[in-house]
Amino acid sequence: KKYEELDITDPFIFAKVMSEKELCKPLLENILNIKxxxxxxxxxxETIQMTVKSKGIxxxxxxxxxxxxxxxxxxxxxxxxxxPKRSRYYQGIIDLNMIEKGESYDILKESYxxxxxxxxxxxxxxxxxxxxxxxxxxxxxKLNDGTHKxxxxxxxxxxxxxxxxxxxxxxxxxxxxxSELTRRIDRKVIAARKNERWRREYMSYQMELDRQxxxxxxxxxxxxxxxxxxxxxxxxxxxxxxxxxxxxxxxxEKISENKEYQxxxxxxxxxxxx
Length: 274
Known about the structure:
By secondary structure, the chain is an alpha/beta fold.
């Protein structure tokens, strides 16, 4: 998209808008139905990578409140099978980032991984899906390990959620802002589109994505199509776009070298059938 066309569901704009405490804090409060005295941003723009060989993650919004609870807030516009495992990976890597070797596990903080999805991943019609670790034999017994995963669905039934969260989800789904909070968010989105420094940052970011896309496409076509692969160029392009959105640049190199791995990923992302 052109910079002027970006909206709140674009991860770049979402991260910039939610970098304003007066918008991020009430959003978290309405998602969790709690009151938060204050939040502090914890290098949310930086990539967390524990080892040289591990896969790094770039967090959209990473904040702590005054009770030392950690919140990771992400905007998701692309559905794929591994989304729950991505939430698991985020949760684990955040924990590892908090603890040093030899320290007590007691220092691990309460943490929430929150995905705002513009689709219904679980296809049950709910607006909120919250998960904690519970005993399979007795669901009243909770593990109480301090971890929470929440998937919001902008297209779900909003009859059982608070009025403000309903307005927020409708706004994230493309409706006009109705509440004071959504109007404030929308004004920030409009201001973000006029921010020349952010525009230049976005253009640099987009140029890097384009470079990765072109390199991956050229290699994919060269190694796949020219060797008689049955995978169509259109399918390769779809796969490349998904990998770029998910910032999985290492996977682009892999699919250019391995035709079978191309097929495996295309099946994984429902580009082709099993």
